[in-house]
Design goal:
single chain; mainly alpha; 2 domains; 2 helices
Length: 71
């Protein structure tokens, strides 16, 4: 049972590695074709949007809220 849960994490780690490694091949032509600041802004905008969608699906809310004890 332990090996199945470990396998899941290895697959996720390899997927993150492949996505991270593929970024250079996508970002270089995009930065050459347009403004590098625009490419960086769009990259972070897409990433933040995807993370907010994942947060919404997993937890049921868009933005986390803090109560007085967490401050």
């Amino acid at each position: 049972m332990k090996t199945k849960s470990q396998f899941k994490y290895y697959v996720q780690l390899c997927l993150a590695l492949l996505l991270w490694a593929g970024l250079y091949h996508v970002a270089k032509p995009a930065a050459e074709a347009s403004d590098p600041y625009l490419v960086a802004f769009l990259r972070y905008l897409i990433s933040a949007s995807l993370l907010l969608i994942i947060l919404r699906v997993k937890n049921g809310y868009w933005f986390p809220t803090l109560n007085s004890k967490q401050w």
